[in-house]
Design a protein that fits this description.
- This protein is mostly beta strands.
- It is built from three helices and 14 strands.
- The strands form three sheets. It has a seven-stranded antiparallel beta sheet with strand order 5-4-3-14-13-9-8. Strands 1-2-6-7 form a four-stranded antiparallel beta sheet, with no helix packed on it.
- The radius of gyration is 17 Å and the shape is globular.
- It starts with a helix and ends in a 5-residue tail after the last strand.
């Protein structure tokens, strides 16, 4: 998937378990590979640093990632429903801490919101993309500066009638796609697609995929929804 090529641009090392203090406001991103622990603030990760989480397909569940200013990097994944539910908490005022085991599985994630330092991003690299539509896939940053008034990427979730998800995108050339789903796909459960869609904020990176054609008379089926909430995509 295109997302993995983008993510690997800034996740360049994975390692692996200790537990830090719960519910505290931490400072710039720190990665301690010797103790398998990373932490940092979304709004001020530090120069050349970043931290965040994503919910993706392939039944990987939630992934946490971090890079510090010294070039240390780490990431881990978990399919634990309790951890996956934390993704919608990650926003511009969040502090994140996570640890992992030698198999790169997250064994602890903590998200603290409402820092007194506010939600203005003051440091760190940015990867903000205008919406792109290619064969079977659309991706882009919600906060991107767009080239036309209707350019966007978004998802809609309705309940309780069927629990339908509808995702749509319009790119800078005016191309558009809309897909919908009401059941599990071969790549991602409906519950995880719903969780990812409900985690979309004004500054998320969003990717969705579909099967079928994209003609005006068709209604392709969404097969996955991936959302990244991290300092790299917050304006």
């Amino acid at each position: 998937m295109r997302l993995y090529r983008i993510i690997t641009a800034f996740i360049f090392c994975v390692a692996a378990a200790s537990v830090g203090a719960i519910g505290i406001n931490v400072g710039p991103v720190t990665v301690n590979n010797a103790n398998f622990f990373a932490s940092g603030r979304i709004n001020s990760p530090g120069a050349n640093a970043g931290i965040g989480g994503m919910l993706t397909d392939d039944h990987m569940g939630i992934s946490c990632f971090a890079n510090d200013a010294n070039g240390n990097g780490a990431s881990c994944t978990s399919t634990d429903p309790r951890m996956k539910r934390l993704l919608p908490m990650i926003n511009k005022s969040s502090s994140i801490q996570f640890s992992w085991n030698p198999q790169y599985i997250c064994n602890y994630i903590d998200v603290d919101n409402g820092e007194s330092s506010g939600s203005t991003i003051v440091s760190g690299p940015k990867y903000v993309y205008e919406p792109v539509i290619i064969s079977g896939e659309a991706y882009g940053s919600v906060s991107a500066h767009v080239s036309r008034f209707d350019e966007s990427i978004r998802c809609d979730v309705s309940a309780p009638f069927g629990g339908q998800i509808v995702c749509s995108a319009t790119d800078s050339a005016g191309n558009n796609v809309i897909c919908s789903v009401k059941a599990d796909s071969p790549y991602q459960t409906l519950a995880d697609m719903t969780l990812a869609a409900t985690a979309i904020s004004d500054a998320s990176f969003v990717e969705f995929t579909w099967t079928g054609t994209t003609t005006p008379t068709s209604n392709p089926t969404c097969t996955s929804v991936t959302v990244v909430n991290g300092s790299y995509y917050f304006p």
